[in-house]
Specification:
The complex is a heterotrimer of chains A (326), B (230) and C (515). With 326 residues, chain A is of the alpha/beta class. Chain A has helices at 2-17, 30-33, 39-50, 62-72, 86-94, 140-145, 159-172, 176-183, 194-202, 215-223, 253-263, 266-269, 306-324; strands at residues 23-28, 53-58, 80-85, 98-99, 119-131, 150-153, 187-191, 208-212, 228-231, 237-247, 279-280, 301-302. The radius of gyration of chain A is 20 Å and the shape is globular. Chain B has 230 residues and is an alpha/beta fold. In chain B, strands 1, 2, 3, 4, 5, 6, 7, 8, 9, 10 and 11 form an eleven-stranded mixed β-sheet that branches. The chains are: A alpha/beta (326), B alpha/beta (230), C mainly alpha (515). Chain B: One of its GO terms (molecular function) is ATP binding.
């Protein structure tokens, strides 16, 4: 036990050294802070400009992140929360824990962004990823009629899972239950999170997996492997926009604003494509990394506003559960 | 003097009444039909069972509320008298010092007890490496170093052959004589009783009868004993 | 003397049990008190309850029923590699869930090895997803544990009993009725209860193998209440339901597992004379080995390439995991040994019960509850490792108790009177008699505890600090970053470390081999 404490002390010593500098605490999801995520580079880049210390705290995923902030409430240690998406914005706003900021940027999103509290830092299209040499269905109806096998994530425990729920609802409205009923024999299984689903797909358990249009970029750029492709559906692909916001109760309001402004600058944005494997919210001056030009770009994008998303969420979930529990 | 004063012992569905006195230094056999309560009586005296009623005195001191280990007696059970993971020496040492290390002097006592039971040089063996007779000797050596005033034997030699059992009983007789220990011994065999017990207590009909001369009892047994002896 | 004198004191054990109960119920209360509103149970929750009970019951039954012939075969046969096989049996149990799922599906999946073989003959792939898949996965996880626990009980029958039975000319069936059946009656209820409780809290395995939302378990409903609905009241309510179910099962099991021990033995090496024709035993050993080792082989094969391809950070995570596991094992023994002693010294069913609760407690609720409780006092993130070690110990406690209690009970029954008559203090009896006599069980419990702690993602995910991550967490992070190959390497490293620790502590199940 003693050795353990010593080890823990040594490992956390790095955070203790610069105690005299102002500290900015940013809560985000776990994969952001991991050594393969944007976290380490973002920390280095921001600390080079701010004369402060940036503490990135990882919390499982976006939904768990919001729960953590709600759990801590008014006296949260966080100054900024980074990693919510449009499906979570309405309930995040409802908590009253977040404050507006004055960040301005020329967003390169497929939609217009006007929210002054939740600021986007990256985005992507949900899409089914498949082997590049396989023919993919062109829409959900065609998918349902085919015997293509897919693996999806559970909307109750996974951000992409919830995205798919919204996607079908946005594309088909009241016909969504029918679509789900048609898809039920295509769905091999439903996983807790993205990693399980993607892992199973790579093992060959399905023909397609719910992921992002940017997923093939990873295989292309990091593994020099062009064998994966994402399919654009002709009813449109649902968007995920990931946002960050300042907490109202922060004691580092200025630093938090500075971080949010940094977040939409080139220094941050150029890190995103090859670490978070998403499109940057603001295209960096030097453009997107090589390989991103090969990605499928859906002709049409779908996205509920945060309020619409909150309004349809529970009903969409019930329809999904009903159709797939038969 | 060991005195069981108006004692009532309950064990499941039978009770046992005991109101007897035993003189210091005597060797007493306890006989009686199977299931009459011989072991129960011994266990009660040793403190493993509570009295329903009455009191037990040793030399005028009330001992019936004492913890088993605080009573002035050593007991050998039908089995399990040695700890299998400890050597003969370690098992014997427990009789001197159950909770600590031995002094040099005490170590010498252990060695001498080993010698007294003719187990010289076998102190480092574990029980599984000893014969049944040798195991009994180790247990007796421990009793020897315990120096208790009373020795209770609940047929510890029942598993030994007749010759070996006789040998053990003779050893017990020698030891209790040397140390002026009072002996209470459960027995099934009149021969055993005659061999080392001057007096015998009959346990039958839910009663612990007062001790009588062993020879007299077996020469002229009461009806309950006669039925048992066959 | 109101109570019969006992050679050991139950109080430290009662204290330890109170501590564990406080941890589990206190964290639950913390979550419940923090709740703002609660909607109560929804119809979907009742469906989740039904499914949870069904799968847990089936999983426990199949695991235990299959474990009996496997354990019997292992108890009766001596063959080269037996020790290694028994040690390897521990492996599925300690794999991180996600790794085990991938390993299982590599064998049983739509494009798994079995389906590939079927494909050669023009047959369709096997359909693994569904209730049967959930049960299969849970049997994969728990059959080894059940086998080890039953094998241990077999091993605790004194050699003298088998000798007696052999002398009486008992054949296999008679031996079974005479000696083994009473032992099984005493052992199996406890094993059933433990596995039932483990399966009760299954989430990712049940969902993935179950093939969709019809395989929703209570644990998933708790997760949903926490993160999707942020309804802490419902999360606490569901967690309380899970605890109540486990407590009820445990009470029933404890009632049935009372009974007499096998009396004294003299530490003779176990030899069996009821060998007979080996066909059936060979069948069970081979079948169990194939079922359990194939998915492990797939973990090894996929990990071998990644093992040398891992960033240094993974090795640091491995070191942290080892440290956490060591601390966790120390805490585990400090809790389990007094508790086992207390249980052995009398009717302290509540002590045993509080030990089993650790299994049914939702890690999410314990983690969140601890977070709520610790936060006013200290920064939870800095306590991530000690908290993880503590929670891992509480989760492993039920296993440790199942291993330690029968032995403690027998030893106390066997040597208690002698110790009392020698005026041995309780402490001396504990240190000089109980501990040395229980050494094999303690080593087994410590090995299992270490391996479990090493493989468990535990609450670290809730408290994580980017600087301090355990190996399972790093494996998840690698997967989340598309680095499936490095993740597979990490999984293999974890497997090697856990098995290594288990092997060292349990000395390769040496006690199960001939002495």
């Amino acid at each position: 036990m003693k050795h353990l404490l010593i080890a823990a002390g040594l490992l956390s010593a790095t955070t203790a050294i610069a105690a005299d500098k102002p500290q900015l605490t940013v809560y985000t999801y776990d994969s952001f802070v991991s050594d393969w995520g944007p976290g380490p580079q973002v920390k280095e880049a921001f600390e080079a400009t701010c004369d402060c210390e940036l503490n990135l705290v990882g919390v499982e995923d976006g939904a768990a992140l919001l729960s953590r902030v709600r759990l801590e409430g008014e006296n949260s240690d966080a100054d900024v929360v980074l990693g919510l998406d449009t499906n979570l914005i309405a309930s995040a706003r409802e908590t009253g824990l977040f404050a507006p900021n004055s960040v301005s940027a020329g967003f390169a999103l497929p939609i217009e962004w006007t929210d002054d509290t939740f600021t986007p830092y990256d985005w992507g299209y949900f899409a089914f990823v498949h082997k590049a040499d396989a023919t993919a269905p062109a829409n959900f109806r065609e998918l349902a009629d085919s015997d293509t096998k897919i693996i999806i994530q559970d909307p109750r425990s996974s951000t992409p899972g919830l995205g798919l729920l919204m996607w079908v609802k946005a594309a088909y409205g009241d016909e969504a239950p029918e679509i789900w009923a048609g898809l039920s024999d295509n769905i091999v299984t439903v996983t807790k999170g993205w990693s399980e689903a993607y892992g199973l797909f790579l093992e060959g358990e399905s023909d397609m997996v719910l992921s992002y249009t940017t997923s093939p970029a990873y295989h292309l750029i990091a593994e020099d492997d062009g064998s994966k492709a994402a399919s654009a559906f002709d009813e449109g692909n649902y968007l995920q926009v990931e946002v960050a916001a300042k907490l109202a109760a922060t004691d580092q309001a200025e630093l938090a604003d500075q971080f949010l402004q940094f977040m939409v600058s080139d220094a941050f944005q150029q890190i995103i494509p090859t670490t978070n494997w998403m499109y940057p919210a603001v295209t960096p001056a030097e453009g997107l990394p090589k390989g991103f030009d090969t990605l499928t770009v859906p002709a049409k994008s779908l996205l509920f506003s945060p309020d619409e998303a909150a309004a349809v969420r529970d009903q969409a979930l019930a329809e999904w559960q009903n159709a797939l529990s038969q | 003097m060991l005195k069981l004063d108006d004692c009532v012992i309950e064990n499941g569905n039978f009770t046992l009444n005991a109101d007897i006195q035993i003189e210091v230094g005597n060797s007493i056999a306890i006989v009686g039909p199977s299931g009459a309560g011989k072991s129960t009586l011994l266990e009660t005296i040793a403190g493993f069972r509570d009295l329903k009623k009455g009191q037990i005195f040793w030399s005028g001191q009330q001992i019936s509320n004492l913890h088993p280990g605080k009573r002035p007696m050593a007991m050998l059970f039908q089995d399990g008298n040695l700890f299998p993971h400890l050597t003969a020496e370690q098992n014997i040492a427990l009789g001197l010092r159950p909770n600590g290390r031995l002094s040099e002097d005490e170590d010498a006592q252990v060695q001498s007890a080993l010698g007294r039971v003719s187990l010289h040089g076998m102190g480092a063996r574990k029980p599984s490496e000893l014969s049944g007779g040798q195991q009994s000797r180790v247990a007796l050596a421990r009793v020897l170093v315990q120096r208790r005033e009373l020795l209770l034997l609940d047929e510890p030699f029942a598993a030994l052959g007749p010759a070996l059992k006789a040998e053990m009983l003779d050893l017990v007789a020698d030891l209790v004589a040397e140390t002026q220990t009072t002996l209470l011994m459960v027995s099934h065999d009149p021969q055993d009783a005659r061999r080392i017990a001057d007096q015998t207590v009959l346990v039958a009909d839910e009663t612990v009868h007062a001790p009588v001369q062993t020879a007299e009892l077996f020469d002229n047994p009461p009806p309950s004993l006669r039925a048992y002896l066959g | 003397m109101a109570e019969r004198a006992q050679p050991v004191s139950p109080w430290p054990g009662i204290g330890a049990a109170a501590l564990v109960a406080a941890l589990i119920l206190g964290t639950l209360a913390a979550v419940a008190l923090r709740a703002e509103t609660s909607g109560g149970f929804s119809p979907a929750d009742w469906a989740a309850l039904r499914f949870t009970l069904t799968q847990a019951t089936l999983s426990a039954l199949f695991s235990v029923v299959l474990a009996v012939p496997v354990a019997r075969a292992l108890a009766r046969r001596r063959f080269p590699g037996r020790r290694a096989l028994i040690a390897l049996l521990g492996a599925p149990f300690i794999l991180p869930v996600i790794v085990a799922i991938l390993g299982l599906l590599q064998v049983f999946g739509r494009s798994g090895w079995i389906s590939d073989i079927l494909g050669i003959f023009g047959l369709p792939p096997i359909r693994i997803y569904g209730l049967h898949g959930v049960v299969l996965a849970h049997v994969f996880f728990n059959l080894p544990l059940a086998t080890r626990l039953v094998l241990q009980a077999w091993q605790e029958i004194p050699a003298e009993r088998f000798r007696l039975a052999a002398q009486l000319g008992c054949n296999g069936m008679a031996m079974f009725r005479l000696i083994e059946m009473p032992m099984l009656k005493r052992t199996l209820p406890g094993v059933l209860a433990v596995i039932f409780a483990i399966c009760l809290t299954s989430f990712a395995v049940a969902l993935t193998l179950g093939g969709g939302p019809r395989a929703t378990t209570i644990e998933l409903a708790i997760y949903q209440a926490f993160t999707y609905d942020f309804d802490l009241g419902r999360a606490a309510l569901l967690s309380a339901l899970q605890l109540a179910l486990t407590a009820a099962t445990a009470l029933v099991a404890l009632k049935f597992s009372r009974g007499d021990g096998f009396g004294t033995g003299l530490d003779r090496a176990l030899r069996r004379w009821d060998g007979g024709a080996p066909t059936i035993d060979v069948f069970w050993i081979v079948a169990a080995a194939v079922f359990l080792l194939l998915p492990l082989a797939s973990v090894v094969i996929s990990g071998a390439a990644g093992l040398f391809d891992m960033p240094a950070i993974v090795f640091r995570a491995a070191l942290i995991s080892v440290l956490v596991a060591a601390a966790s094992t120390a805490v585990l023994l400090l809790l389990a040994l007094p508790m086992a002693t207390a249980v052995a010294s009398g009717r302290y069913g509540l002590v045993e019960l509080s030990g089993i609760l650790g299994l049914a407690a939702s890690p999410l609720v314990i983690g969140t509850g601890l977070f709520i409780l610790i936060r006013p006092l200290a920064n939870p993130t800095t306590l991530a490792l000690p908290v993880t070690a503590l929670v891992n110990a509480a989760m492993a406690l039920p296993f440790a108790l199942r291993i330690l209690v029968p032995a403690a009970r027998d030893i106390t029954a066997r040597h208690g009177r002698l110790a009392l008559s020698l005026d041995m203090t309780k402490w001396t009896f504990f240190t000089r008699i109980l501990l040395p006599r229980m050494r094999p069980q303690i080593r087994f419990a410590a090995g299992l505890g270490t391996a479990l702690s090493m493989g468990d993602l535990g609450v670290i995910a809730l408290f994580a600090d980017p600087q301090i991550a355990t190996l399972p967490l790093q494996i998840y992070r690698l997967m989340g970053a598309y680095q499936m190959q490095a993740a597979a390497g990490g999984a293999l490293l974890l497997l090697l470390l856990s098995m290594g620790a288990f092997w060292l502590l349990d000395r390769g199940g040496r006690w199960h081999a001939e002495a």
